[in-house]
Specification:
The chain contains 14 helices and no strands. The protein is mainly α. The chain starts with 8 loop residues before the first helix and ends with a helix.
Length: 363
């Protein structure tokens, strides 16, 4: 009996076509769940050190129960402030529109020294004065600007809520991933070894450290800034403090200075507060906005061999390409590419002397 000729080019082409069809078909099947799975992996990698410490306190007993309680506590920590923040925004919006319909909405007039502010003083004083004296005319005059600002804010807030919703489901799946982390890590190492023999553990460690660094250096810093800003807003009794806190969080996540969201808050505070408290609040707001300049280098590059600039470029570029998810995927992809480049360069450097010695021996 003749054995099939495995070196026949036709057989090779058929195998390639069938394998390509199988991979494409498989991708189309799992495509609706790719985002959720990636989120789950990111959440699992980020929370795994905390999960290990809690599991260590119980000495590994009742692992399933500990995992379930851990996930339930985290769900509560996310759901509670999200619900409170959403209800606060809804209540503030209802109150605003109710006063607007009744004609009882009043904006306090600006102080005279607002006109002396550099660059924007005159325009801000004129617009503010118009809003305090004739609000309806002000709204009609700046209708396009108000609509675009409101649509941007609600669009950003809706996107943030969507990310939170995906994060809640991802958190549940992450619990399953964390309970079987050892087998998942081994599978990842085996896959990485197929791409780069002998570098599997190095690449896996690099990916995990990059994800954790981005979580601490970008998300954690943004949350810290938003919380500090919210405390300042509440202390100074700023109207719609939760709205401004959300703006600070959004600006911090998308890597824009939170001071952009705080400037209107500072202007409002100067309109009703005494000069000394308003100045103190302004200094506090500037410090909060600039806090990322020393928090980010500490948290973003901690424990990483990849330069912080590469991580930051990956985070910004990934976010522009894929939104919030790209914030985490971008640094990982760029870090892998960077390390592959270093590996290729060092490999070339190691082979050059050997070639030179060979030529010298022949000569």
């Amino acid at each position: 009996m003749k054995t099939p000729n495995t070196h026949n080019p036709i057989n090779t082409y058929i195998n390639i076509v069938l394998l390509t069809l199988l991979l494409a078909w498989s991708f189309l099947i799992v495509r609706p769940f790719v985002t959720l799975i990636v989120w789950s992996i990111i959440v699992a990698v980020s929370l795994y050190p905390i999960y290990l410490r809690i599991l260590g306190l119980t000495k590994g007993k009742k692992k399933g129960l500990v995992t379930s309680l851990f996930i339930l506590v985290l769900l509560g920590l996310i759901i509670t402030p999200t619900v409170n923040l959403t209800s606060s925004l809804i209540d503030s919006g209802k109150e605003f529109y109710a006063k607007l319909d009744e004609g009882s909405l009043k904006i306090p007039p600006p102080k005279e020294d607002v006109a002396d502010w550099p660059v924007i003083g005159d325009r801000l004083y004129t617009a503010w004065s118009q809003a305090s004296t004739d609000l309806e005319r002000f709204i009609s005059s700046y209708k396009d600007e108000i609509e675009s600002s409101l649509s941007w804010f609600f669009g950003s807030f809706t996107g943030l809520l969507g990310s939170v919703a995906i994060g809640l489901f991802a958190l549940i799946i992450a619990g399953v991933f964390m309970s079987s982390a050892d087998s998942g890590y081994k599978a990842g190492v085996q896959f990485a070894n197929r791409l780069r023999p002998g570098k599997g553990e190095e690449f896996m460690d690099m990916c995990t450290s990059t994800i954790r660094s981005v979580v601490k250096g970008i998300l954690l810093v943004a949350i810290i800034q938003a919380v500090l800003a919210y405390i300042g807003f509440v202390v100074i009794q700023l109207p719609a403090a939760s709205v401004f806190a959300v703006l600070v969080l959004i600006f911090a996540i998308i890597q824009l200075p939170p001071l952009i969201a705080m400037i209107p808050a500072i202007a409002i505070v100067f309109s009703y507060a005494e000069t000394t408290p308003a100045i103190i609040f302004s200094i506090y707001a500037i410090i909060v906005s600039m806090s990322d300049s020393f928090l980010k280098p500490i948290l973003l590059g901690k424990g990483l061999e990849t330069p912080m600039l590469v991580i930051l470029i990956g985070a910004l570029g990934g976010m522009m390409l894929q939104g919030i998810l790209g914030l985490f995927i971008g640094p990982v992809v760029l870090a892998i590419a960077y390390n592959l480049y270093l590996s290729w360069v060092s490999f070339e450097g190691e082979t050059a002397p050997a070639v030179a010695e060979t030529k010298k021996g022949k000569g």
